[in-house]
Triosephosphate isomerase (Filibacter tadaridae), 253 residues
Amino acid sequence: MRKRIIAGNWKMYKKAEEARSFMKELVDTVPASENVETVICPPSLYLYELAEMTKSSTVGIGAQTMHEAKEGAFTGEISPKMLTDIGVGYVILGHSERRQYFNETDEAVNRKVHAAFEYGLTPIVCVGETLEEREAGKTVDIVATQVKKAFEGIADSLAPTAVIAYEPIWAIGTGKTATAENANEVCGAIRNTISELYGKDVADALRIQYGGSVKPANIDELLSMEHIDGALVGGASLEAASFLKLIEAGSHA
Ligand SMILES: O=C[C@H](O)COP(=O)(O)O
């Protein structure tokens, strides 16, 4: 049985005090459950403080992106070594906003997946199609190619510990959600791709999240699907009350 993983991606939102009080509430009230792993990915500015606040709790902290090098003259960047050093455990890689606005290519995502593993971080690898690609019937091809490229050269022993987030780009922040059946179908295709690459045991172990306008009203149906093991949540992770409802949903057997 795969443990669910619900991750909040705050993107470029929240002032320091808001981040602090959210995390205090989350740490104090997050249900202790063996069924769900909880992760918050704040802006990098808050990583250190929030990692300190969550040290003795079950809440994990993730970065929203990182550079692939351990250190160097890369103004403005943060490295996997720095993330591990301050107690960050996860990193989102290849989010569609990084691909779209910051020219993050499949090749760069692959290098970052390698770097994440090298420094003991769990990569949350994002894949997803545009509306145009979906309407042209290319969804499965697109996500399968993104997965294959992201995992190029990744050892069999590491692959099952990665997380893949399927985020149809047209569903991000738009209020439009893929139907649970649709999302499940694509997550199933992702699992098949992993099975082709690594075999069934790895495919059965690797967790796949759905992301794109996930909220308390649709989480139960999404999580009831065979191939959906959690959610990568933007908007609904910004308020502790709604995020806690998602964790609560994930904690049910
Ligand atoms: O990383 C999170 C996704 O981009 C989903 O964002 P959203 O829940 O606001 O649609």
Notes: The first strand starts at residue 4 and ends at 9. Residues 9, 95, 167, 172-173, 211-214, 232-236 surround glyceraldehyde-3-phosphate (CB under 6 Å). The mean pLDDT is 96.
